Amino acid sequence: MAFKFNETPIRGLMVVEPRAFTDDRGFFMESYKASDFISAGITAQFVQDNHSRSCYGTLRGLHFQKAPHAQGKLVRVTQGKAWDVAVDLRAESSTFGKWHAVELSAENKLLFWIPEGFAHGFVALENGTELQYKCTSEYAPESDLGIIWNDPELAVEWPIKDVILSEKDMKLQSFAAYKRTIQ
Asked: Where's the active site on this chain (predicted)?
């Protein structure tokens, strides 16, 4: 198998270690192989790929899409380094409202599997940080939602406090407001 699948404390989230072959020319690795992912219990079918480039301190998130357009994401950094965060929004989950983060970098080549039912965000730890991620549902503006990055109830431990945000991300709802919409 070309991958090692590492479970996290939150059911469904996985950190995936690809097997890279490195020599003096560079490296080669598979970044996705359906049969290996299916063997690990990740049966998602991807329908859209996204690619972003961010300067140091740019924080994007915490974003999610509501059903019927909820997205699972397979995230990796191809240049630079990012602190990548997933927040469990599954109301029936014992880890509802809990978050898990992983440092993704071009150097460590890790992938982060975030299934449907999670909010996702990241902060760029280097200039020119590029994220590429596969999604299980196409972007649907009518389903696009988010939770403010510094929500005190979630208490995500971001490694950078002075972040650069889009106008949209500055206006995202609180976790308390989100919970009221699902009750």
From this structure: 63 (proton acceptor), 133 (proton donor)
The enclosing H or E element of 34 equals helix 34-39
The active-site residue out of 63, 69, 100, 120 is 63
Q: How far apart are CA 179 and CA 89, in angstroms?
A: 9
Whole-model pTM over 0.90: yes
Q: Is 63 a catalytic residue?
A: yes
> Can you give the pLDDT at residue 2?
85
The encoded tokens of residue 7 equal 């479970």
Annotated active-site residue 51? The verdict is no
Options 3.30.1330.10, 3.40.50.1820, 2.60.120.10, 2.40.37.10; CATH of 3-182: 2.60.120.10
Distance CA 132, CA 165 (A): 19
Cα-to-chain-centroid distance, residue 96: 16
